[in-house]
Amino acid sequence: MQDGSLLELRGIYKSFPGVKALQNVDFTLREGEIHALMGENGAGKSTLIKVLTGVYVKDEGDIYIKGHTGPVQIHSPKQAQEVGISTVYQEISLCPNLSVAENIFLGRSEGRIISWRKMNKQAGELLDSLGIAVKPTQQLASCSIAVQQMVAIARAVDMDCSVLILDEPTSSLDESEVAKLFVLMRKLKDRGVGIIFVTHFLDQVYEVCDRITVLRDGKLVGEYEIEKLPRVQLVSKMLGKELDDMADIKNESPEYDSKSDEFVYEGKGLCSSEGISPFDFNIRKGEINGFTGLLGSGRSECVRTIFGADKVTGGTVKVDGKEVRISKPIDAMKQGIAYLPEDRKRDGIIGDLSVRDNIILALQVKTGFFKPFSKAKATEFAEKYIKLLDIKTASVNTPIKSLSGGNQQKVILGRWLLTEPKYLILDEPTRGIDVGTKVDIQKLMLKLASEGMSVTFISSETDEMLRTCSRLLVMRDRKLVGELTGDQLTQNTIMATIAGGEKDAE
Amino acid sequence: MPSNALKPPKNSKMPGIFRHQIMIPIAALVLLALFNLIADPSFFKITMGQTSNGDPVLTGQLITIIDYGSEVAILALGMTLVTASSGGQDISVGAACAIAGSVLLRVLCGTETSPEKLHAPIIVGFLVSMLVAMIFGAFNGALVAFFKIQPMVATLILFTAGRSIAAWVNHNQLPNVNEPSFGYFGSYIPGIPIPTPFCIALLCFLVTFLILKFTTLGLYVQSVGINEKTSRLNGLNPEMIKLMTYVFLGICVAVTGFIKVSRLSTINYSVVAKDIEMDAILAVALGGNALSGGKFSMSSSILGAYVIQFLTTTLYKFDVKSDALPAYKAVVVIILVIMSAPAVREKLSQLGKKLRAEKHTAESA
With contacts defined as CB-CB under 8 Å, which chain B residues touch A386? Predict the structure, then answer.
């Protein structure tokens, strides 16, 4: 092992039936370093992490860890913990109904008798030392996702981990929460912990990381120091091609809709059980607009109201000029509205069903109970969209849960495109998926709009929205506070509108 | 357009799993058959016998199996759908069978205990009992779907009260049907040597498969069982679909209750269809269906039901006393269920792969 390294992987191979997930991958993590692991979906990041944490057993290769002579064998998550590797996943894997302190000490109390006071005191000290502002006795479920994540990190730190893996920790955090997380990460770095940071956000990588390892198609592309790798190069290394694609979109400025004055959807005074103030909303044929605002500002709640996903408590709706009632999803679907939900796992996929069944589901429901598609017809539909959206799946029979995140997202997108909607709502379609797929989805949106489909787009990444939308609706504190078009569509105006009065007060 | 996606690669997982699920009851069946073949081949003998009226009928252990297994198989149809949609089981089907049977007798006999003439045609009696069973099914379904009560807890209510209700329907009398044609449904129709319950079961299977083929019920039920939230966002009404499966089970209950009552031409409220719910649930489990809901295979459940009867008949054949029967059954069931548990199956398939790989290297060397 080299001096100063905490963890070394040498020549790791791992394959699954039909897929070589990792081929001859090397990886080195040094003491007190934040190391970004980058790559597109299917590049092998998740597999590498799972090999490290004992979820998968590697086929070939050696793992060396500081303090252990010779290669170590990691066959289970428990063994990984024993050698000092801890992981915090995107989905929190703690117990929401226990207290913060209980979660930190769960499963590792000494002896049979627990001193609650001592446990809470220790937890309090630990949280203080890491600067996490939460009471040890608070129930975990009542904390924000960010705090829950930090509690998970605190637990890992307290278990004397030397290698901390953060798998997409920031994808459900807003900016201030991300900043807090970074403070915590830097603190750990100073203590000599090595952090492997998996994320899709380039900004964050450049803000906090020291080194980057890039994987592509299961192979190592290289390890780089952050100063020596400009963004453009990083992206091109991840994609394995030059950046024409990205440039294309930037040049393609959104067309401001003069060609059509026809409203596809008009809503007045809409509100739902999720507590957003009544809002008006409309969209023209072929228009792309979007809801923006901070996390929790009510963006998703707005589109859920439009689709009837939450209980609609008021308002009138006109589709194509005719007054209609939309109180549940099927009503919206019958009006030609489609909705790709924000939470893919909870609201999007039917995990155990095949890719085929997942693709045909919405159209099948729309078609009716007594008119099932034949298997051949369903397969034909599925294959059409697998091809069109370039979905990577072994076959139409593969259960959707075994696909990677980006491909699951494409399947759900395919499901809604199959219904040939005239109005498509995309809530965070690009979250947690790789740059290449993001670009594909944005391009597809522009193409669909040019063919006359109306699209509402929500994204946490403002530049994505600036690139595609011709009109932005700004949300603050569950209220619609502004509408931006034309020249107003710049980062600065958006920020100012989101910040609103507070900004003036400064 | 020939596409690669049409032909899954050789080592694709899904077809293997599909083969696997129906393989569980088949393997159990083969095992039981082999055991009987070795112990006493006469188990498989089928002879042409005669009823007391002189009509020709088939007799033999296998005939007994398809005769009595049919009751559980019919219930397994509904139980499979209930399990898939709600991720839980209805434990009240035995009690509900008693109610259905009791209602049937009440309609046919009126208030008399042994009427000379039936008060209504058999079909009317059956339809009324089916309606009642569907209402009770809807009651269970509503508790599960709208009040979100765990299925076993929700159906515990009817499980507890059902037999009392059945007795109350006939004022605790035990009516007796003298009409000989009523007995045909639980034994043989003159001229047809195959037991009627099996014919009824075949008809039920056919209807169920037609429903699954010509409606989207299968897809909906699985979607709701796997992810209720997603199903709702795709325009489904999960509550209605769950309710529907319980009502469907109600129909199955009515058919089974009819067969049960027809076998005796009367009813014993505390004994009729006793513990049949456990056999029906077991049939679903033996079929390799997850009891936590989601994907299901109807044919596997049906086969599972007959495997259970095969086991029971085998045990009787070897003179196991009827009160000791459940204990023996339990042992066999434990083995079967463990063998079909996903964890064990995975281990077995790994072992199989290893053996094959070793064989392969041995051959190439």
Answer: 5
